[in-house]
Design a protein that fits this description.
Blueprint (H helix, E strand, L loop, with lengths): L1 H10 L2 H7 L6 H57 L5 H21 L13 H24 L2 H9 L1 H13 L5 H18 L7 H28 L3 H23 L11 H27 L2 H22 L6 H17 L2
Helix pairs in contact: 3-11, 3-12, 4-5, 4-10, 4-11, 5-9, 5-10, 6-8, 6-9, 7-9, 7-12, 8-12, 8-13, 9-11, 12-13
């Protein structure tokens, strides 16, 4: 159907009709003109086809990239915090962003970093994004230190309605009733899947609750700046990372225990931390790509899908037994995700 419509529009164009009506004496010119128009039409078809592939493959590739990196960094960070014994979550976050900034500086030195767009972004919007990035990532790692993974996921459920409410207030975005039902099913499924692992402290619970609003704001700003103001993921990371580093430094004395300088910085421990930092750069980059290609709600749903896959994967591959309730909850959540299409 698309090809038929395009060919019809091509044939009824004024310049094409004029060429087709030319006399035989103008055969050479007519042939050349028809060849030029044929090339133009083919290029148009290829551009339409390429655009369709980009709209389909772009979000899928970005979400897949983010999913793989997110699963990998969970195991690496668990290794760093538990086996290596690096009990300084905010300082670990600071190392992640410092390594990310260093890698981007290298790319910038070789002119491989995308230039900032001539957009309408104000310094205030970039400054705000830098602050919420430090709060979102730093508080998330602190929450994982003092709470169980199950409680962390329960707190993450509250991010979804926060994003829906904030996008309605700021951008007048409305969510269809079907999507509301699907997101509700996803949230209930994740809650059931993680209800057997609710261990937390009072301080950890307060940190988890304080993390919800920065996390929602962070995802909304990343998605909006890329989609509405044409920022690329790396260029936006390059502009906001110094601000994030500054605020992470101010958070370390309040949220990290003392003794980071007394940590045993041998080759093995330092290599593990640097590996975690490199994956942190990939996680930040892939997350920004996913937010730019889809939406803030899609990124939250992807995180909940990751939780369910890890739970089911541990059950089938490693014979862990989270319980029938948790397994059923994971399947309910995945069923809801298949209908959300956010």
């Amino acid at each position: 159907m698309l090809c038929s419509r395009e060919i019809f529009k091509f044939l009824v164009r004024k310049d094409v009709r004029k060429i087709l009506k030319r006399k035989d004496s103008d055969a050479g010119q007519r042939g050349k003109a028809l060849e030029d128009l044929r090339s133009s039409l083919c290029n148009k078809f290829y551009s339409v086809d390429s655009s369709k592939r980009q709209r389909i493959c772009g979000p899928v590739a970005a979400l897949t990239f983010n999913f793989i990196v997110a699963v990998g960094i969970i195991f690496i960070n668990k290794w760093v915090l538990k086996t290596v014994g690096f009990q300084f979550p905010v300082f670990l976050t600071f190392i992640h962003y410092a390594v990310s900034w260093a890698l981007m500086a290298i790319l910038n030195t070789f002119s491989l970093l995308p230039a900032s767009p001539p957009s309408k972004s104000t310094p205030l919007s970039l400054f705000t994004l830098g602050i919420v990035m430090s709060l979102s990532t730093g508080l998330a790692n602190v929450s994982l230190t003092y709470n169980s993974v199950g409680f962390y996921q329960m707190a993450k459920i509250a991010v979804t309605p926060s994003i829906v409410l904030a996008e309605f207030i700021w951008y007048k975005k409305r969510v269809t009733f079907c999507k509301v039902i699907a997101l509700t099913v996803v949230s209930i499924g994740v809650a059931i899947a993680t209800v057997t692992d609710l261990q937390f402290s009072l301080f950890g619970a307060c940190v988890a609750m304080a993390w919800i609003i920065p996390s929602a704001t962070n995802k909304i700003l990343w998605s909006n700046l890329q989609q509405q103001e044409n920022w690329t993921a790396l260029s936006l990371m390059w502009k906001t990372t110094p601000i994030t580093l500054l605020f992470l430094v101010s958070m370390i004395p309040f949220l990290d225990p003392p003794g980071v300088l007394a940590f045993h910085w041998n080759f093995h421990n330092t290599s593990a931390i640097l590996l975690s930092a490199f994956l942190g750069f990939l996680l930040q980059w892939s997350g920004a790509l996913a937010l730019g290609a889809t939406s803030a709600i899609s990124h939250v749903v992807l995180g909940q899908f990751k939780t369910c896959v890890l739970l089911l994967g541990s059950y089938y591959l490693f014979e862990s037994n989270p319980g029938t309730t948790s397994i059923c909850g994971a399947f309910v959540a995945i069923g809801g995700m298949s209908f959300s299409r956010t």
